[in-house]
Design goal:
With 611 residues, the chain is α+β, with helices and mostly antiparallel strands. It has helices spanning 44-48, 75-88, 102-117, 168-180, 194-212, 229-237, 240-252, 259-267, 272-289, 304-328, 345-370, 384-407, 413-430, 434-464, 466-493, 498-508, 510-525, 537-540, 557-569, 574-578, 584-610; strands spanning 7-13, 18-24, 60-62, 67-70, 91-96, 126-133, 136-143, 149-153, 160-161, 164-165, 183-190. It catalyses: D-erythro-1-(imidazol-4-yl)glycerol 3-phosphate = 3-(imidazol-4-yl)-2-oxopropyl phosphate + H2O.
Length: 611
Amino acid sequence: MSLPRRTTTVTRLTGETKVQVSLSLDGGVLPAYETCEHFPQASPEEATRIVPVPEARHSTQFTPTQQITINTGIGFLDHLLHALAKHAGWSLAVRFDDHHTAEDTFLALGTAFKQALGPRLSLVRFARGDAPLDEALSWAVIDISSRPYSVINLGLKREKIGALSTEMIPHALESFAQAAGVTLHVGCVYGDNDHHRAESAFKAVAVATREACRRRVEGEVGGGGELSASQIEDKLQECPLVQELNARKLASSPETTSFTSKLFTILFPGSPAVNAILATLYISGPPNFLLALCPPDINPSSLSIMVAFAVGGLLGDTLFHLLPEIFLGEDSPEHVRFVLVEPNRNILLGLAVLVGFMTFVAMDKGLRIATGGVGGHDHSHSHTHAAEGSVAISSGSTTSNKENVGELKKRKSDSKTEANNNNLSEVDKKEVSPSTKLGGYLNLIADFTHNITDGLAMSSSFYASPTIGATTTVAVFFHEIPHEVGDFALLIQSGFSKRKAMGAQFVTAIGAFLGTFIGIAVQEFGGKSEAGDLSDAGAMATQTGLLGTSLAMKDLLLPFTAGTFLYVGTVAVIPELLETGKNKGEELRKTAKQFIAMAAGAGIMLWISWA
């Protein structure tokens, strides 16, 4: 397979230094001169190839595989550059005009290396090189990672080698690593002669660089050929157009942190796992403690305004935060971001949303079947079925009273009416039908299960981003208040005392913590997402994640949560908000209040997103 040659020419002009570097990482003929004021037009012959200077000594090489021409005026610097180019397999020409420094030379060389290397696809990437020179032995390890860093330890003792200051030798390698965007570690194991220590180190760097730059052929196994998502992002950030967009974004960004950001930082100061546990504590504790202020005979239907507010918050969180995060990722405050489109990835994420939605459909349907069709576990938590349970009790009592009336036909009608009313009142106070008791216990089971999904929502959202976690916590908190009050009223209707009903609600809150810990475990040990290892369309086709995509199991928790929120905010709640009474004027006023409350809940989520 024929691969394009990696060549470039770089000109570095400063107030004191003029350096031009022509480089071919694959050897062979060098690119033409770049003409400028300090490097005028080359002759036709020089424009196509580099001609060695006849009087140059060790710094010049002209063979079919390599062309090296270096003449800095500092003999030992020429020697080191030639050793680096020769053993790395490069063709190299370094041209100067007037004054120059070793640092500028290697900065220009590093820049040329970076440009010639291009997008860094299908490279070996990691490599080590060892090189002896007589009594000296040096090693070098390089990572072509777009993460510039260097550690150079040569142990040079002399002040100069020839005309070159020895302190410039490690600094030259540091400059190269910085400009080239590579991680470079170099050390000299032992050696008596500083000349040999320095030259063996440069040869070791050359050997390591040559191997790291080797392009893998198709089918060859290599560990570092693909670019991670962060590396792709780094390469995009080098584009001049992107840098201009970044500058515009920073210029238009607010200079101070918003109030909501400061508040969320105070409430959630730890790692994603710690913040998820704190969030679960926030959504479970305060709503349950509020039950102490609720009267035992509270009517769940009176919570419709609070329910509408919670619906707006849930749908706002889903549409403004969760779904954009799932499919597009989170915005960066410092620079513009780009989205890589991967085949089938979005389909699998959408499937996870559907699974979350259908899971709650199955839970609700199963509870309705278990209770004989008397309501269901209303995930809006307004629990209108609590009132339905009360009606069922009254209906059963009336039937029983009619039988008693038939057996006591001789009583006077007014006596019968009084007896029936007394009997009805007594049954309402003292008797609870078995089906209603069963409904109460089944509601606790469903509530426990639902709280597990709330815990999963906390963990998955905080592992997605701190902002998504915080907004989800706010939405679930306001959703939990009518939820807890509605469940409390249902348990009272099922025969629980106020104290037992509050205790039962605290027990179901354990489910939220259980879900949180399950979510944390899945995020920590649920497999590494490979979305960050895409290099190009060809690499996408060979992903080893779920169903051939880059997704891991943990990546599906957030879309599963979004699906459950969609169910809670629509199917489980909207029917209750659509219920109307006979008083049209009262219903119109109630509807207006519900719409205002829903808009307020969604508006808070929108405000947090916008801020």
